[in-house]
Please model this.
Amino acid sequence: MDKPITAKIKVCLLGDGAVGKTSLIRRFVDDIFNDDYLLTIGTKATKKKLIIKKTNPKREYHLTLMIWDIMGQNSFRKILHPIYLKGAKGAMLVCDLTRRETLDHLIDWIDSLNVEGRSIPSVFVANKSDLTDQHVFELAELEKVASANDSPFYTTSAKTGENVERAFSALGKNLIEDIIINKSLGSPAERPKSSESAIASNYNY
Ligand code: GDP
Ligand code: MG
Model:
């Protein structure tokens, strides 16, 4: 088999505050969950390797995802957006099954998927699937938003781990398709520069 193709790729998580962005990253990267609300200050990038095997032609892709987390407070979005999304090759849009407005707000985030003149691959996620008795919308409603954007969609739980790996892998697969179609590995994902910052302070609420 040919040598694996390696690529370092920046992806961003987008969505309102407290939908579970930080928890999804922690579940995916470290396989842990805790109930504290971690208020992410500024942005933070976490590294995770993802291996994707493709058949026809048979090829392995070793992706190093640089997963960027952001605080979701509306007031900061507009200021942080351009910096946060600079160089991003993919995004995970997250809403919360227990709060309807977080689904409605995904529309606002979709505009940000146009990075440097082109639409980047994305995956849509409705999180907190474990809180079954508190759900206020159905997967079909997320499907409407995701399909309009030609993107895969999942219900996930950062708490139980349900579909978390699957959602990130779906994003990884779409990133590869994008790489193949655009015949480029793109520029290496940028690490946060000190000025833009890894001011990665987490506070327990
Ligand atoms: P962020 O602001 O989007 O980064 O959200 P956090 O990851 O900090 O999560 C906000 C709150 O929701 C925290 O109290 C988490 O423990 C909780 N939470 C996150 N994901 C889940 C989940 O899948 N199920 C449940 N029950 N709680 C979750
Ligand atoms: Mg957070």
The CA atoms of residues 26 and 32 lie 6 Å apart. The first helix runs from residue 21 to 30. The longest strand covers residues 43-54.
